Backbone:
C-alpha cells in the first residue's frame, strides 16, 4: 500500500503506527524532479525525538 503524507503530519502518523511497527514501513521523500529518495526512518525518528 502506498500513502501520501505531508511532512508536517509524519510525526503524528509515526506515533499512531507505534515503534513496534516502524521496521515494517518504508518512507520516501519526493524530490523536486518528482523522483523518490528513501529516508532512513530511524534517523528521522531521532530528529523528531519520538
Residues:
Amino acid at each position: 500500500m502506498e500513502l501520501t503524507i505531508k511532512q508536517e503530519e509524519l510525526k503524528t502518523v509515526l506515533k499512531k503506527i507505534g515503534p513496534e511497527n516502524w521496521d515494517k514501513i518504508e518512507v520516501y521523500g519526493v524530490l523536486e524532479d518528482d523522483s523518490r529518495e528513501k529516508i532512513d526512518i530511524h534517523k528521522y525518528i531521532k530528529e523528531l525525538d519520538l
Q: What stands out?
A: Residues 7-17 form the longest helix (11 residues). Strands lie at 27-30, 36-39. The longest strand covers residues 27-30. The CA atoms of residues 32 and 38 lie 14 Å apart.
